[in-house]
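Input.
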Amino acid sequence: MPRASFTHRVTVPRSADEIWDQLQVAETWSNIGPVEDVWDAEHTDDGHLQRYRWSTTVGPRSYRGRAKVIASEPGHLMRLDLDATEVVGTLTTRLAQNGDDATHLEVTLEVESRGTLSTLFFPVVSQAVGNGLPAQVNRFAESFE
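Output.
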């Protein structure tokens, strides 16, 4: 099955802890990678995001999926497993404190088609997702300014 990987890096004028706290808000993940809408989020008792349901639209068709946190190092790393009918992947966020008041943020999206239909359209879909990732990550970073 076809695969693609995209990465974007930006410096955010906030501490890694502040950014980490925002990553625990499920709606933060709306419009990052293939995710458009988010609902049914679940958190641990101490507020860490565990999973959510999501959807995206490709052409005239809507797809639904699930995201599950598969790796979590508070203030440093969060990795989500994305699972939908036509596409699977991982969305990884890495944080590295840069001085007292800034953090390097790196977001990597790895996607793989699943099924015959998605394989046919994968080049177009992956290019659109990959081209959109920098703007999505930049908007997230700008939300802290």
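Helices lie at 16-23, 116-142.
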